[in-house]
Design brief:
Length: 242
């Protein structure tokens, strides 16, 4: 595993390089906002936070949320000593961006395309509930040792005419709490997600820190493949200094 170079975070950001990032979609994109609700509607162009996620992915910054939180706390301390403004940018989603201060989108994102199509698709979303009634019934699988115990209690629950389908059952809760490791951590729920099939490209004007520009330019020269929005949104990338 290659080492991740985080040395750029030691220096306060200085935005001095005008650049242009060109994104060419290779597959339909789904760029969902921070709080999507029940319908995962895609935005027509990426937000700054999505561009930041794309940049960090290209640089190989595949860092767990807990580690990002530790890094963010250390960066906050450094910025206080450097007497620089610090913003977490961690609103809405669990993604904690680390490079948001090192670039700005300086103008409107241009969409140059010959054809565009919007697609609604059923997407399987991983979900977790603390209550047994929803979580167990949402799971497709369980440990084989649980099958007989589950069937006995489920039959008793189904025969309980006084209990509504939304009410919890004491036996079911005890089973779920005692044998929680025997059930999947998440269950899948079908969700409608919108995709954009764009035959063209996005052109994004940026003002960047020179260290970030050089690092990103070097990576793109070696491998210009990334993804945008979600792991299915594969793209080609180009960047140039203006």
């Amino acid at each position: 595993m290659s080492r991740i170079d985080l040395s750029i975070l030691k220096s306060a950001p200085h935005l001095t390089v005008n650049a242009e990032l060109v994104i060419e979609p290779l597959a339909p994109l789904s760029m969902v906002s921070e709080l999507p609700g029940s319908f995962y509607k895609s935005m027509k162009s990426p937000s700054k936070k999505m561009v930041c996620g794309l940049i960090e992915n290209v640089l190989g910054w595949h860092i767990d949320w807990k580690d990002r939180k530790v890094i963010q706390d250390e960066v906050k301390k450094m910025r206080q000593k450097q007497k620089c403004k610090f913003t977490t940018f961690a609103y809405g989603s669990t993604y904690i961006p680390l490079l948001m201060d090192y670039f700005n989108v300086t103008g409107d994102i241009r969409i140059n395309f010959s054809e565009i199509c919007f697609i609604d698709d059923l997407w399987s979303r991983s979900y977790r509930r603390a209550d047994s009634n929803k979580h167990i019934n949402g799971c497709r699988y369980m440990d084989i040792s649980m099958v007989q115990k589950w069937e006995k209690i489920k039959n008793a629950v189904d025969k309980d005419e006084k209990r509504t389908s939304k009410e919890k059952n004491v036996l079911l809760d005890k089973l779920f709490t005692r044998y929680i490791g025997k059930f999947p951590k998440y269950y899948s729920t079908p969700t409608i997600r919108e995709y954009i099939d764009l035959r063209g490209r996005y052109v994004i004007p940026l003002l960047m820190d020179v260290k970030l520009f050089d690092s990103l330019n070097n990576e793109i020269n070696m491998n210009n493949i990334g993804y945008l929005g979600n792991s299915e949104g594969w793209i080609n990338l180009k960047i140039k200094k203006l």
